[in-house]
Design a protein that fits this description.
By secondary structure, this protein is an alpha/beta fold. It contains 12 helices and 12 strands. Helix content is 41%, strand content 17%. The strands form 3 sheets. The protein has a 5-stranded mixed β-sheet. Helix 1 crosses helix 5. The longest helix is centred in the first third of the chain and has 20 residues, at 91-110.
């Protein structure tokens, strides 16, 4: 699939692709501009630019093209009552499509299979060899199973071996959040997984446009009406993943338990004493007796507990990726030391012998 076709298919899955995502898909700004100019002139795509939000939707010619060439991947999104088939102009509905689109594109760039031709059906009964599957499924691929989860803010489900994640996208501010609905969403995913013989606990991945949004989510009290996102007890872990290129490594670690363990074990060699119990926040202490905390996964619940502990102890070492340091420094303060992990070097280390 060439880049032009990939763009058209991703617009199909998205319903409306945010304008800034086109360059992420195609590559260079000049080539992106040339491709979009041609697609608009030839009647494949239409530009929407209302209420301060710009996006691309398929015209009839574009829909016919992708259905004829990539029907297996696009048919369920471009036929029937699907929201991506009947794209509305209301801003709330458009932003819902933008959230889902940003997740589609991010996981595609990370190397997670997203197209139907590349992955098995969600919640399928499979032999043992299917347990290691890594794939992302948009909400349209499973919400038809029950009306109980239609109001969930979930964009989709990420399966990664024995791990499962409900994926959300908050854009640039706190998203709407109905605790009862999201608890139902988690229960649905775990029940369907167990029916297929897979005892899988689901955690949450919350995405956002910027790294800085992390601080707002951590401090959120739910807003005046209590209907905005705040950390609660629905999921044991809420992993925050900013929608920037550097953060692709976070998804790699969440989706691959072997690489996750490999990095953990390697980092443990960076300090003198690696003692850890089940309910201990620190992974050990350094040569001076200062506790060491691994924060690079950006687990919201863990970060809250770490701040409470470091405020009490007034010391600690924080291991995080370089792009995470400024916002963690803002949240945890300067009473602790920060050990920056270089993303490029970690990728080289994790990809050795592969």
């Amino acid at each position: 699939m060439n880049k032009q076709d990939t763009l058209l298919v991703l617009i199909s899955l998205s319903g409306e692709l945010p304008a800034d995502m086109a360059e992420t898909v195609i590559g260079s700004p000049s080539y992106t501009a040339a491709v979009l100019t041609r697609l608009k002139q030839e009647g494949y795509v239409l530009v929407r630019n209302k209420s301060g939000y710009k996006g691309y939707v398929l015209r009839a010619k574009g829909r016919h093209y992708v259905l004829s060439k990539f029907g297996e991947d696009t048919e369920s999104f471009l036929k029937g009552a699907a929201g991506t088939n009947h794209v509305k102009g209301e801003i709330d509905k458009r932003l819902r499509l933008h959230r889902m689109s940003k997740v589609w594109v991010f996981f595609w760039k990370t190397g997670i299979p997203i197209f139907r031709s590349e992955k098995p059906e969600l919640f399928y009964k499979a032999s043992e060899d299917g347990r290691g599957i890594r794939a992302y499924y948009g909400s349209q691929e499973f919400k038809g199973r029950t009306d109980a989860i239609k109001g969930s803010r979930a964009c989709g489900i990420l399966l990664a071996g024995e791990s499962g994640y409900i994926v959300y996208h908050s854009l640039s501010q706190r998203m709407r959040w109905a605790k009862k609905m999201e608890r139902t969403m988690r229960s649905f995913a775990e029940r369907e997984s167990m029916k297929c013989g897979k005892l899988r606990r689901f955690d949450a991945v919350v995405m956002g446009d910027t790294v800085e949004l992390l601080a707002e989510l951590l401090e959120s009290d739910g807003g005046v009406k209590g209907d905005l996102f705040q950390i609660d007890d629905i999921y044991e872990h809420y992993y925050y993943v900013p929608g920037i290129r550097e953060a692709e490594i976070q998804v790699m670690l969440l989706a691959d338990s072997r690489k996750r363990e490999k990095l953990y074990n390697f980092l443990c060699t960076a300090f003198g004493q690696a003692e850890h119990t089940e309910y201990q926040l620190s992974v050990g202490t350094d040569g001076s007796g200062n506790p060491v905390y691994f924060c690079y996964e950006l687990d919201l619940c863990q970060l809250l507990r770490i701040r409470q502990e470091t405020e009490w102890k007034q010391k600690g070492n924080i291991f995080c990726f370089s792009y995470q340091k400024p916002v963690l420094e803002l949240f945890l303060g300067k009473k602790v030391l920060y050990r920056e992990i270089i993303t490029k070097k970690v990728l080289e280390f994790l990809n050795q012998d592969e």
